[in-house]
Every structure is written in C-alpha cells, then in structure tokens.
Amino acid sequence: MLSFYFMRRSTIICLLLCVVLLSSCGGSASKNSRNSETLDTLYTPRYASGFEMFRHGKSTMIHIINPWQGADSVSQWIFLSRDGEKAPADFDGITVPTPICKAVCMSSSYVAFLEALEADTIIRAISGTNFIYSKQIRERIAAGEIVETGYDNSLNFEQIVALQPDVVFLYGITGENALTAKLNELGLQTIYIGDYVENNPLGRAEWITLFGEFVDKGQRATAIFDSICTEYNRAKELVAQVDQRPEVMLNAPWQDSWFVPGDRSYMVRLIEDAGGDYACRGVDSDQSRPISTETAFVTASKADYWLSPGMATSLAELRAMNPRFESIKPVRENHVFNNNARITPSGGSDFWESGALYPDRTLKDMIRILHPELLPDHELFYFHQLK
C-alpha cells in the first residue's frame, strides 16, 4: 500500500517522533493492567478498538490501547481533570486539566479532528506544517500563530518547551523512541493517538470522541460522529444487493516492488463496503506487503479499476512512470482514479487530513467510481479520474 503508506508518511510523518514512551515518566505507555471493568463507562466505542473512556466524578479517565502497529498489551491512562478533581490514589497515568488550551499535533489528522470541533485555536505547533491542507490552519501558520516542530532528529525541543503546551499528541509508528523519552524528561505531557491503527474506517473517525473530551466538547464530538456513521452506513446499504463487484487494484510500484495492503486493511475495507473486490486478496493481515512488479502487472491487468496510483495526476504521468502501464486494462479503459484531487502545491493532502475523519466521503467517492448508477449526482471529493 505504498502510495497510501508513503503519502501518509510524507505528509504526516514527519511525525516520527511519535512512538512508545519509555518507562520513567508518567506520560509513558506501558503494559499497564488497571482493571477497567470496575470503572463507570462514559463512552463505549462502536467501531474503534484503540481506546476506552470512563467517568470519575466530573472528570474523564481515558485508556489508550496498542496505539501503533505491532504493539502488544501496551496501554496509556490519562485522567482529564475538571474543576480541580484529583485522580484516584492508585492512578499511575498522567493528569491533564481540561479543557486544554495549547496543544502540539504530530499528525495532520489530529488537526482535522480539532478543526471539526471548532477547537483548532488550541493548536500551537504541528510537525510537517508544509503538508497541511486546511486553508484556515495554513493562514495561522503563515501568521506565525502555529509553528513547525521539526521531526525525527531535527525535532526542535527548545521551541516545543517554550510553547508550554498542555499536551503533545503523538503519532506512534514502531515502538520506543529516545525523542519521545526526551519530551517526557522535559516535563511535557505526551499522549499517543492510535487512529491510524484502526482498520475499520468508522473506527478511525470515532477518535473524534476522544478529542472531544480534551476540549470539553464530548457531546458535539459524538453528534459529529453519529452523523458520519449515518452517512457511511446509508451509502454502504446502496451496494448491499449489487450483482457485479468490480476488481480493484491499489497503489503503484516503488523501486522493484509494488506494496499492497493486507486483506484486513483500512483501504480494503473501504473497497468492500463500496461494492468492490480487492484484486490482491490472499494475506490475512492489516499491514502492507511487497509483491514483485511482475506479479503486480499481471494482477493489475485483470483488474477493472486502479485506485491511488502513487502521485500521478494524469494518465500521461502514469505512462511516463512505466510504459507497460499502457497495456493494463484499467488504463486502456480509463478506469484509473487517484485520491489527490485535493492537494496543495507543497504536498498537503486532504485525503490524509480530513479523510481520516470523514470516511463517508471516501466511501461515496468509491461507490460513484465502481457503481456510478447508484450515486449519479455525487461529485467526487477526494478522488478524481486520471485523463
């Protein structure tokens, strides 16, 4: 799934800092075994698997679970204190007074969540400001109201500390990272957001309910998510009885390999919910895997549609990448669509920004592509046809 994986990494990923915390600080993720069964449930996720939320007086207790791919029994507890309430005596997580006033975001999808909640004014720094799509946020960046944090080994610790953020929302990728430990040593509250780990598109969007608790807009967050669910499931119902399910190829070659997602991945779920069949089925996994370009060409030649072919914006660009693409069935039949209809000159992609929150828009795009007769009036939002 390299084009998706790579775009995510190139637009958001600058965000490598985000990984599992080391043991010494209260903000660290750990193999924590607090018994959630004895707590008073505030919100039970319907689709997401990466978090739980509980009541404690007026406050909220959040449990984040396995927030990066490959994590095993890793968790983080956060006590969101209201009106000065104290965490339980045996609580071993971090305490954050709410509503928070200043935040650092290490992924552009977090920007979309906060913007939808009309709480984006709390954002003071972003990793990868050049890759932000939102016009409103880019204007604040240009005005100096939001700064670049840097990323990886170029992370600007001094600047982050000077901002005195209430929280740093991290993007976990692989595991323990010395940069994250450094943030904790500097006294910063770091919190893992594992939205990208969710394989269910609605599960990824459901993380807005967690963000709502940080800014005391839980009801608004739930209402937004309910609306997204309604739109998504209504669109999904349209394809319930389709007779033909077109085969769909994903992504494009990278060097000598073509990375394709596993059968349980986010994009494959969207294809299936849109009434399509995934052309590269066969691996029960939620992670991408490389296949040889030869195997990929054979598979793509049999597919009916080709979605997200790298960075290409036209068929001419696609042919320039490899002349053999000319012979692939979706290219011959003009059935190639990419998710880069909404991008900025510097590479900001709305598909990887607001798309995480609004999978209903992506689903409708895919239904319009695969079964145009079912949504004849829908105008493509994230996708466009390559010509």
Describe this structure in words.
The protein has 387 residues and is α/β, with parallel strands linked by helices. The protein has a domain at 241-385: Rossmann fold (3-Layer(aba) Sandwich). Helix content is 30%, strand content 18%. It contains 13 helices and 18 strands. The chain has helices at residues 2-12, 108-116, 135-142, 157-163, 178-185, 201-205, 208-214, 218-238, 266-273, 293-302, 315-321, 329-332, 359-370; strands at 40-43, 51-56, 59-65, 75-81, 94-97, 103-105, 123-126, 147-148, 167-171, 190-193, 247-250, 253-254, 257-260, 277-278, 289-292, 305-307, 336-338, 384-385. The strands form four sheets. The protein has a five-stranded mixed beta sheet with strand order 1-2-3-4-5, covered by helices on one side. It has a five-stranded parallel beta sheet with strand order 8-7-6-9-10, with helices on both faces. The chain is globular. Mean pLDDT is 89; it is low at 1-26.
